[in-house]
Amino acid sequence: MSSSWIIIGIIVLLVLFAFGAYNRLVALSQRVNQAFADIDVQLKQRHDLIPNLVETVKGYATHERGTLDDVVKARNAALSAQGPAQVSAAEAQLSGALGRLIALSEAYPDLKANANFQQLQSELSDIENKIAASRRFFNNAVQEYNTGIQQMPAALFAGMFGFSRKEFFDLGESRGQLEQAPSVKF
Fold this sequence. Notes:
By secondary structure, the chain is mostly helical. It contains seven helices and no strands. It is a single-pass membrane protein.
């Protein structure tokens, strides 16, 4: 009789541990989702700023059509991207196109001196800093989540509960170029 109580006690402990592990993994997963939503908010602000920046540049650099088209195409691709991997790839393309657009101001002194352009550059720089901070928070949440599903004994239950590895918000090949803050010169 006492051995059956021991077995029942062990089963109860395992069930309680499984519930605890599941709840912890759910909390970590929700933290990752919330962190990605924070990045998404910053990216939407960036996407909303870009048409104003393009229109301002259009008035001064009319024969730079290729650069302006690249920015618009990259923005549209970024708007339609889904999930961290696609979003990070599309945003890397957009960052490169924006860098070329901002570089145009060096060739057009009137544009560089334009108050509206200066304000838009300042807003873009601020948003880029917020995106970088949100990206760090997201990657930290992903690291904690991935560690949580791989550590024992939760690893025994993670696959059974449907928890799988999440991807980091990676900047890809142009990482070195994109890690530098946008240069704003007046």
